[in-house]
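To whoever picks this up:

The parser on our side crashed when reading a file containing two proteins. I've narrowed it down to the boundary between the first structure block and the second sequence. Both blocks are reproduced below exactly, byte for byte. First block:
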Amino acid sequence: MKPFDLTRDISSENLNMTGLFSFFEDNTAQVTANGYSGCLFCSDTLTNKLTWELSDSTLIMKNLDYDFTLEYIVQNQQEGSFELVLMEDITIRLKKMSGVFLQNNTK
């Protein structure tokens, strides 16, 4: 994978990435992000198995194998859907479908 070019203009690029969040009762989750050629985030499809916990308005996702944690701020929660914000400028929109939430990342 080539390093990201921080000097390129991304204003006209598609900044969306689809995927799937699956949450389980044992506080584990599987997150799949569907990359594609030219995607700002990743060109490959990634799947991670994580643990999760909810603390106040923060969803905390941890990868215990790598001591890695992501904290998402929960915003705009409605019946069957909500938005998560990561690093102040990445929004993840989740919509409940057949017992799972579908993910759509947008910068």
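<<boundary where parser fails>>
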Amino acid sequence: MIMLTGCGNPAEEVLKEIETGDAAKAQQIYEKKVSGDSSAEKMVEDGLAPVLETILEQYNTGDVTKDYVNQQFDIYRSMIGETATFVDAEKMLAELETSKKNFEKRH
């Protein structure tokens, strides 16, 4: 869950939209109000870390497909770019894919 600490902060608006599942609206707010403000960008990046982890957990348990993960990652990548947070999530995804393939080969 994403913690919001106040009202009117553009980064918090983005995170609120992500929490409610409206990634497209979050992206619009990010582009209009957050992009270029390094502290707001960092706040969004920090807030996205648990979101990316949740997506990976859902993929690992089979609750979502690889296409869904790619779609969500594309949206969030367009917001925060290739930051350490995102690169770590992509590495975790690659590890999960390898694990799933190895599991399928054995069964």
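After patching the parser it read the second block fine. The first helix runs from residue 10 to 19. The CA atoms of residues 4 and 12 lie 6 Å apart.
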